[in-house]
Amino acid sequence: MPIASHARARRAPCRHLRLCLGLGLAYDDGMLSDLAHVRHGRPEDAGALSRAFKDSWLVAYNGIVPAPQLRAFVERRDADWWRAALAKTHGQLVVEVDGMAVGYVTFGTSRSSLPFAAEIYELYVAPLQQGHGLGVQLFESARERLDRRDLEGLLVWALTDNTIACEFYRRRGGQETATAIERFGHELLPKTAFGWQ
Known about the structure:
The protein has eight helices and seven strands, in the order αααβαααβββαβαββ. By secondary structure, the protein is an alpha+beta fold.
């Protein structure tokens, strides 16, 4: 069923990976992560990250976050917003596949009163690239950089109804440490904190 064999795809990766994935090329987890590179984001990544953010949020939170709030939040994170955010030189990494940024992670000191000094604020990968180990690469890269800063303990919050995200953090060894409520318009949505010591 695959259009290209595993070995052939390794020798000549598709120049437009999203299109290739859509056409059914076989990229296993190891292969796609072999093509991936984690680096600091640059302002020229703004357009790609705006698309990745929009697509990942619409898929992850459809049916969880009320549609008007979801649309408004996604529209605020346009390319200009990303360009300004990427001008910062610390606390953010992107994962690039075949020259295109397809996901990101932001991190720093914890914003919570819980006993964790470090926090991953956001981690998202474009939907077509999910399930291939790119999120793991982002998570581990952020964790490594936080460890270098000698911050004791790591915290990540996820909306409780985002079962894919919660399962991702459980598989990384996160322990459920707290719950809280996040407001989206008139809706109050539960969120779960995952911690690592």
